[in-house]
Amino acid sequence: MITSDQNIGAIRNGLRTSKACRGKYVAYCEGDDFWNDPLKLQKQADLLEQHPACSGCFTDCFIIEESKPTRIARAKITKNNLYTLRDIIVHRPPAMCHWIIRKSIIDDLPEWFLSLKLGFHTALLIYTVEHGDCLHIPEPTATYRIHPGGITSGKDRITMQKIALYNLLIMRQHFNSKVRKILEKRIARNYLTLSFIYTSAAVVSEAISAIKDGLKMSTMFLLREKAFYRLLYRICILKLKSGRKDSII
């Protein structure tokens, strides 16, 4: 058990506890999640032992959200159940409770992780897969819970999206050019999502500002997205209703 005289925050605590682990692999299970397969760790460790070039292993997982039916988060099926850098960034698994990672990777986590907000799991997964592909077991072995007492409870969609963008922009500064190129598309998509959220709240100026930031990040990516044109239509409708006639972009 690792204790503190004062609250050091989720990021710093997560990093120090990860680095304090002494095993060959590190598995995560936060207080509100749980493992439902008694052989989860054995299955994952055995698979990593058979594939020494792989950096981590994850499974599908159940998601329990208050007032909603339990669902299963199934990962996109890939060749040989291997997940590459692009797969992780584009199709990020929903939680950490269904992962194990090689401890040798965590030992070298850089100090810039401390500048992230709320959580470091997305950065950790990208950093992990930078060291080698990840293995996927297509069966649910853990349960991720979403409830009012969770770390993200009380935060609205705009705040959560801005935190995600902040973290992605930090990552873009520190990962190599190959990762940055993929991240820029993910960031552009997040700006697109943020803009949609603003249009739902009829905040046109912020919606336009968000999509402009997305276009600066990856113009060609957004121009190929059908959702981008649906967004422009929604903005036009809102501007007409408000009587504004200035240009959108």
- Terminal Cα span: 54 Å
Question: What percentage of amino acids are in beta strands?
Answer: 5-15%
Number-wise, the strands total 7
Largest sheet: 7 strands, mixed
- Summing up helix and strand content along with how strands pair, one would put the structural category as alpha+beta
CATH topology of the largest domain: Spore Coat Polysaccharide Biosynthesis Protein SpsA, Chain A
Number of helical elements: 10
CATH superfamily of the largest domain: Spore Coat Polysaccharide Biosynthesis Protein SpsA, Chain A
> Into which percent range does the helicity of residues fall?
40-55%
Radius of gyration: 20 Å
What's the CATH class label of the largest domain?
A: Alpha Beta
- Second-tier CATH architecture of the largest domain: Alpha-Beta Complex
Oligomer: single chain
Quick one: overall form? globular
Provide the succession of SSEs.
HEEHEEEHEHHEHHHHH
Query: Runs with pLDDT <50, length 5+?
Result: none
- Please indicate the count of domains: 2
